[in-house]
Amino acid sequence: MKVGIQLINLNIMKKNRTKHIITWAFRVIAAFIMLQTLFFKFSGAEESVYIFTQIGLEPFGRYLSGGVELLAGILLLTRFYAVGAVLGLGTISGAIFFHLTTLGIDVQGDGGTLFIMAIVVFVSSALTILLNLKEVKAKYLPAKFQTSVSA
User: Fold this and answer.
1) Which of 145, 122, 131 is nearest to 29 (CA)?
2) Residue closest to 95 by CA, chosen among 75, 126, 120
3) For residues 124 and 26, is the Cβ–Cβ distance under 8 A?
């Protein structure tokens, strides 16, 4: 009986370790993409200025989205990763929305690179939250709401 319990515990530890590694991979991917685009937003790169001019938010929107992505990218690499993932989801949802409604998939001949990066950040952030939903709910939702959201 004792051997069976030890095997179950070992299996649980392996699953937790795998989940931890996968979660870290998604966190790093989302953070890396958001943080590496900051240079272009904050330096006023031609493509960034063009994008935010097209959507009518230049320069305020460029600086605001850059600031939110900076915060999200940093938080994704800390114990507050869930907050970073939610911020990343929010800001990248705006980027995806404008790609689909105003900018198009291919912006200034980039072959859809910016759109694909936005999708990768969205998926990585969403999976970071979903893989850790039980822990995220326990940490950030009041007790009366924890049972209404499925794990």
Assistant:
1) 122
2) 120
3) yes
The model's pTM:
0.86
Reported as a single tens digit per residue, the pLDDT across 16-70 is: 889 999 999 999 999 999 999 999 999 999 999 999 999 999 999 999 999 999 9
Residue 110 resides in a domain: yes
User: Ramachandran region of residue 142, left (φ > 0), alpha (ψ -120 to 50) or beta?
Assistant: beta
How far is the C-alpha of 125 from the C-alpha of 119, rounded, in Å?
A: 10
Nearest to 125 by CA among 94, 79, 92: 92
Please give the residue range of the domain that contains residue 100.
2-139
* Beta-carbon-side half-sphere exposure of residue 133 (alpha carbons within 13 Å): 10
Cβ atoms within 10 Å, residue 1: 5
Under a CB-based contact definition with an 8 Å cutoff, are residues 59 and 1 in contact?
Answer: no
Give percent of the chain above pLDDT 90: 75
Domain assignment present for 144: no
Q: What is the total count of domains within the chain?
A: 1
